[in-house]
Design a protein that fits this description.
Layout: E1 7-10, H1 38-50, H2 53-56, E2 60-61, H3 74-83, E3 88-92, H4 102-105, E4 108-115, H5 120-125, H6 131-147, E5 153-160, H7 168-178, E6 181-186, H8 192-199, H9 205-214, H10 218-223, E7 238-241, E8 246-248, E9 260-263, H11 269-278, H12 280-287, H13 290-294, H14 311-316
Parallel strand pairs: 1-2, 1-7, 2-3, 3-4, 4-5, 5-6
Antiparallel strand pairs: 8-9
Helix pairs in contact: 1-3
Length: 323
């Protein structure tokens, strides 16, 4: 019997329109991502129900690396999710305002806005969007969802860079005015290949210079010790499924070989989990201490002396019945 899972993510959009220089789906994205097929989406949900995974988790994250609101048939996906009574969550860069009605909010339990700052300068530097448009879109999404009857959680995940710390206070006021939560997280080097190049001292100098000027990577060295083989990666307690129904080794890796443990619809789930536990990619990640870094790296000391939740706690600490 497979051990109980604490979270599951289903990528409905392997496409993102942001140009983040440090994200796997940003400026240096690997081509080939697409939108999940509607029929495949339903089959995946049926399989998750059959495996009783839906019963184990508070809600299903309909996102991973991509921007979910770009999906051209989002309404149909939401309708299927509601019909199957699957609670769900979205994380969005707020560049697109979807159609928001009673169907959209019916099973919605959490909506996260991912923000790289709170100024035109920060948005030009990271996402590449017009900041005023994003701010207006967030206000529109929150207002329409509440008008449609949504009473769940809105939350801003504010990614803290060296250059945007002075923007935290106005973002806090913005969140307070809208009555939504604000969480602070360190922005990290979130591109698998670039992260390993940084650790192995092979990252090209121009990129290394950019990283040193933008990110708080002093924490990376202290969190990546050698000899961490006994660390149990909390990623084993979640399931990350891409838009082709492939189960990834974890939510941090790119798609394709050698990062796929199997296909949810074709392979036995127990075999998939065993492949994850025995993966050479995972063994290297754990042995070098990278797994420990990736699961604790987002923690940021907040202004009131408390700490923002790490990735590991974000996987486990679900809302008061939440994600």
């Amino acid at each position: 019997m497979m051990h109980r899972l604490k979270a599951a993510y289903l990528e409905i959009s392997g496409v993102c329109n942001a140009r983040c220089p440090y994200c796997l789906s940003g400026r240096y994205r690997t081509p080939g991502g697409g939108f999940i097929d509607v029929d495949l989406f339903q089959r995946i949900l049926e399989r998750l129900k059959e495996l009783q995974i839906i019963d184990q988790i508070p809600m299903l994250g309909l996102y991973n690396w991509g921007e979910p609101f770009l999906h051209p048939r989002l309404d149909e996906l939401v309708a299927i999710t509601n019909r199957m009574e699957v609670p769900y969550a979205f994380s969005t860069n707020a560049s697109v305002v979807p159609r928001i009605d009673e169907t959209f909010i019916n099973g919605l339990s959490l909506l996260i806005f991912s923000m790289p700052g709170f100024s035109p300068h920060s948005y030009e530097r990271i996402h590449g969007f017009r900041f005023e448009t994003i701010r207006e879109n967030i206000e529109t999404i929150v207002g329409r969802a509440r008008s449609a009857g949504y009473r769940g959680i809105f939350r801003i995940h504010y990614h803290v860079y060296q250059f945007n710390m002075g923007e935290i206070a106005p973002c806090r006021e913005f969140a307070k005015r809208l009555g939504i939560e604000l969480e602070l997280h360190y922005a990290i080097l979130n591109h698998w290949d670039h992260l390993w190049a940084y650790i192995d001292d092979t990252l090209p100098y121009p990129m290394l210079k950019e990283v040193s000027q933008d990110l708080f990577n002093f924490r990376l060295r202290e969190l990546v010790p050698e000899g961490a083989e006994t660390y149990r990666c909390p990623q084993y307690d979640l399931l990350a499924i891409d838009e082709r129904a492939d189960v990834l080794l974890c939510c941090q890796v790119p798609g394709g070989d050698p990062y796929v443990a199997g296909n949810l619809l074709r392979d036995d789930i127990e075999d998939i989990q065993r492949r994850r536990m025995r993966s050479g990619v995972c063994a290297r990640c754990i042995g070098r201490g990278m797994a420990r870094y990736l699961n604790t790296s987002l923690e940021f000391p907040s202004l009131n002396g408390q700490t923002g939740p790490s990735l590991a706690r974000r996987l486990y600490r679900k809302i008061r019945s939440r994600f």
